[in-house]
Write a structure and sequence with these properties.
Blueprint: H1 9-38, H2 44-49, H3 56-69, H4 74-82, E1 86-88, E2 108-110, E3 130-132, E4 152-154, E5 174-176, E6 196-198, E7 217-218
Parallel strand pairs: 1-2, 2-3, 3-4, 4-5, 5-6, 6-7
Length: about 220
């Protein structure tokens, strides 16, 4: 026969129930805090020191970077990474570029053949002169408009339709947009330094080159 609840047992049961709710809620709270903290990491060393808080995608990128410099020691890795001017991160199945955002000294970055769709972390890399993003899953290139030192950029084999962010790249000499979803290239007519504009295999509404001389535009052959 069940014993009747006394005034003493009710608070105990309520207390246990509240404690259980608090415990169950901790993983979600911790996850939310981790996500919030990850947004505040600015330097490569910050990302390295907080690697356990990162998403699997960001951690994969960080691990590849540590592999590149040959050490998992964050202080040493930070020093070695600061000396890098060129990074080739092609074919590593990367999707989250967040750990790269503090590498502002990089001038050449190769990210060919990955799973990249979000370019936001690259907008701080304003010293970039050469960038290869071919064979990815990119639709939005607006973060690239801040990369005004770019001379050569490869965006082929993506899903890009709007190229207007590229009109800000005043010193660019070569743009590869082959195999995308580009309809209009007239936004690029102000690029006075450009020498090669590759736009093969795109659903262009016009094959009239908006840039002089006209042979700069390389349409389908």
């Amino acid at each position: 026969m069940n014993k009747p609840l006394t005034k003493r047992t009710i608070p105990q049961k309520v207390g246990k129930f509240l404690l259980m709710l608090m415990v169950l809620g901790l993983p979600q709270a911790s996850l939310a805090q981790s996500e919030a903290n990850s947004q505040t990491f600015k330097t490569f060393q910050d990302w390295c020191l907080n690697r356990q808080q990162l998403s699997p995608e960001a951690k994969r990128t960080l691990d590849v970077l540590l592999q590149k410099v040959g050490t998992s020691n964050c202080d040493r890795a930070n020093q070695m990474m600061a000396e890098q001017k060129m990074l080739d991160l092609s074919t590593f199945l990367l999707s989250d570029l967040s750990p790269l955002q503090g590498l502002t000294q990089i001038t050449v970055l190769k990210l060919r053949n990955n799973h990249i769709s979000d370019l936001t972390p690259l907008q701080s890399l304003t010293n970039l002169e050469e960038l290869d993003l071919s064979y990815n899953k990119i639709t939005d290139i607006s973060p690239l408009k801040s990369l005004t030192k770019l001379i050569r950029i490869n965006l082929s084999y993506n899903q890009i339709s709007d190229v207007s962010p590229l009109q800000n790249l005043k010193v660019v000499s070569e743009i590869n947009l082959n195999n995308n979803q580009v309809v209009d290239i007239t936004p690029l007519k102000s690029l006075n330094k450009i020498r090669f504009l590759f736009v093969q295999n795109n659903p262009l509404t016009s094959t009239e080159c908006p840039i002089n001389p006209k042979y700069i535009c390389r349409f389908d052959t």
